[in-house]
Design goal:
The complex is a heterodimer of chains A (about 260) and B (about 400). Chain A is mainly β and about 260 residues long. Chain A is built from 2 helices and 12 strands, in the order ααββββββββββββ. Chain A has one domain: Porin (Beta Barrel), CATH 2.40.160. In chain A, strands 1-3-4-6-7-10-11-12 form an 8-stranded antiparallel beta barrel. In chain B, strands 13, 18, 19, 20, 22, 23, 25 and 26 form an 8-stranded antiparallel beta sheet that branches. In chain B, strands 8, 14, 15, 21, 24 and 27 form a 6-stranded antiparallel beta sheet that branches. The termini of chain B are far apart. The chains are: A mainly beta (about 260), B mainly beta (about 400). The interface between A and B is large, with 37 and 37 residues.
């Protein structure tokens, strides 16, 4: 995966080099910005913070509750040739998720106040993730024509408000391993196993985005992006879940060209 | 026509999306568990083998690896064929229903999980009990050990009428371990008292269950000890049912005596950590005799919420007002109060259960009490009627 990031960064660097003013000065800077295009965006994201490849322990998805995943921000595109350009921007967005899944023999390890309860859980699990963040995309743009643009490149995010909590319910935990004590979990607040991993969420994330812009007038357009997280949602020391969770979200929205 | 085309394309899209979604889910993993869930013995003449029909079937608690059938004294156990309900897909050797000789002691059965990765061993034995008449039953708390399966906390053994050690004492220590995994054996709610009234005694301390206990709404664990079974599987859900009070008892109890020390702590809190400055914690010591079957012949065990209130209770002996003793041993000697007549035939046929309960916080079952309240108990005597 690291290699792909390196290649992408190299592509971006080559493009950046191509657009850099050759000699300094205000005039050159003005020249530089002469053909820069500016866009405002407002979109809605849908997706999940999920393992890559569904582990066999996850048996079914019972509920997928839509979240207030708005995304808004601005991008600048500097054309470097007739078809190519480079995009940089800043977005403020939420990548939240609320799901309810049925699991079987799902290994988990809950740590709270220095105490750990570890085992395999069979039953239902309700998870809720919130992640408000600033995202900076740096992308190569291929401008097919006046209407269509294709974008791809890395993005970096910094989470300002995040959390991951939920509860295991209507099932049982085998303490330590499948031969351990069987502890039933019910469905009321007191009978279920609540967890809260807010402290363990990684604040800085990076990933790869691909997207398409379609402008039906000179000013107004729509866009579709797919942002694929390459860094795990939790910090490296987090061992509660066996799988690393990656935020994978698609965004649909409207774009407005202001420059 | 166009409309129909549209419908068809929507249908196709739905099928594709559904297909993609379902293909995400892998094939169900094989079962990893390997429990004996139930064990039963089928004999042609039940009444000559067993005291009660219900003794032929045992529901096995997940933490138990010892299955004991209680039978009449002197019956032939050289060729019995116990049968088992085990986890789906698991296998058991020797086979369920195979004829085994139980006269030479316990027979070991091994269960292997469906996925082949896990195994559990169980011993099955047929305990032929004679009808002993003991005037005074002694509970001195001298026989204890670290739980053999995890070495995490102490368990106690009682002395059976034939002089062997029984497993009738239970505590909530196993439940405490769910929330305080790092606790040392002496940090559990029920621990060994080195210097009791005479030799060792038992010490019960109301403990904090820490952050994990707090998030499950059970912030304290009272020290408790009782004759019966602790069913860990219910510790987080039907908590009151985790304490299964009582063991079959074949004599008429008359008096309960012994020694205790009590020291209430403060502040008194409830399960939401609200403090009650006016309430002072108290200890609890009692014994209850009850009928262990309902009118339809189904086995009954009393739980935390009905052990002192059930209609099936025959007699109760409860020490009143266990409060601060200032480090002194206090003697108690109380009579059983009979609420109804006792049926001697039923008694001889194991139709009654008796429990004996100690708790460091009288409201501990509902998670109310003071962290640190301490009850010490030793040299408990149960005096029974000896005239036949």
């Amino acid at each position: 995966m690291k290699r792909y990031i390196t290649i992408l960064l190299a592509l971006v660097a080559v493009n950046t080099w191509a657009i850099m003013p050759n000699d300094g000065g205000c005039k050159n800077l003005q020249n530089f910005f002469r053909n820069v295009q500016g866009f405002g965006r407002l979109g809605y994201s849908i997706g999940g913070t999920a393992p890559l490849g569904m582990p066999a322990e996850i048996r079914s998805l019972n509920k997928f509750i839509l979240q207030p995943n708005v995304s808004f921000g601005a991008d600048l595109i500097k054309p470097t040739s007739k078809h190519w350009g480079i995009l940089a921007g800043i977005h403020f967005e939420n990548k939240a998720m609320h799901i309810d899944a049925t699991v079987k023999n799902y290994h988990m390890k809950i740590t709270q106040g220095g105490e750990t309860l570890e085992g395999v859980f069979t039953g239902k699990n309700d998870s809720h993730a919130v992640a408000w963040m600033f995202t900076v995309p740096i992308q190569c743009v291929y401008m097919v024509n006046d209407k269509w643009k294709i974008k791809f490149g890395p993005y970096f995010s910094y989470l300002t408000n995040c959390g991951f909590d939920g509860f295991a319910y209507d099932g049982y935990l085998r303490v330590d391993d499948p031969t351990g004590a069987k502890v039933l979990l019910g469905s009321t607040d007191e009978e279920r196993g609540n967890y809260d991993f807010n402290e363990d969420v990684r604040k800085c994330q990076l990933g790869i985005g691909v997207g398409v812009d379609y402008f039906f007038t000179r000013k107004f357009g729509v866009y579709a992006d797919l942002n694929w997280g390459l860094s795990g949602y939790f910090k490296a020391h987090f061992k509660t879940l066996d799988q690393t969770l990656y935020p994978i979200y698609g965004t649909l929205g409207i774009a407005y060209r202001f420059k | 026509m166009n409309f129909l085309k549209h419908k068809v394309s929507v249908a196709v899209a739905v099928v594709i999306v559904a297909g993609v979604l379902t293909s995400c889910f892998k094939e169900e993993p094989l079962n990893a568990e390997c429990d004996i869930e139930k064990a039963w013995v089928h004999v042609s003449d039940v009444d000559s083998y067993f005291y009660n029909v219900t003794d032929t079937l045992i529901e096995v608690i997940s933490t138990d690896d010892k299955i004991v059938f209680t039978m009449r004294d002197g019956v032939d156990v050289t060729a019995l064929a116990p049968q088992f309900t085990i986890t789906d897909g698991a296998t058991i050797t020797p086979a369920s229903g195979s004829v085994q000789d139980f006269s030479k002691g316990p027979v070991t059965y091994t269960v292997t999980s469906q996925d082949g990765k896990w195994q559990r061993s169980y011993t099955v034995e047929c305990n032929r009990v004679a009808h002993y008449i003991t005037e005074v039953m002694n509970f001195d708390f001298e026989h204890f050990e670290l739980n053999p399966s995890n070495q995490a906390y102490y368990i106690w053994h009682n002395i059976l009428p034939d002089g062997t050690l029984g497993d009738d004492w239970a505590t909530g220590n196993g439940g405490f371990r769910l929330s305080r995994r790092s606790a040392k054996p002496e940090e559990y709610p029920t621990i060994v008292l080195e210097n009791g009234y005479d030799g060792h005694g038992v010490m019960l301390i109301t403990r904090s269950t820490g952050e994990l206990g707090k998030i499950s709404g059970k912030p304290i664990a009272a020290g408790n000890m009782f004759l019966g079974k602790f069913n860990l599987s219910k510790a987080l859900t039907k908590t009151m049912e985790a304490t299964e009070f009582g063991i079959p008892f074949t004599q008429k109890p008359l008096r309960l005596s012994g020694y205790y020390q009590y020291s209430p702590s403060s502040p008194f809190i409830d399960k939401n950590f609200n403090e009650y400055p006016d309430r002072i914690d108290a200890g609890d010591i009692y014994s209850v005799l009850y009928i262990n079957h309902d009118r339809n012949g189904n086995p009954v065990v009393l739980y935390g919420d009905n052990v002192l209130s059930s209609d099936l209770i025959v007699a109760v002996a409860r020490v009143k007002d266990i409060k601060e003793t200032n480090g002194q041993w206090v003697n108690f000697d109380i009579e059983f109060e009979y609420r109804r007549d006792i049926d001697m035939d039923l008694l001889a046929n194991r139709g009654y259960n008796l429990t004996l309960v100690f708790s460091s916080s009288i409201e501990g079952a509902t998670f109310e009490g003071a962290i640190g309240s301490t009850l010490k108990v030793d040299k408990v005597r149960l005096t029974c009627e000896t005239k036949e």
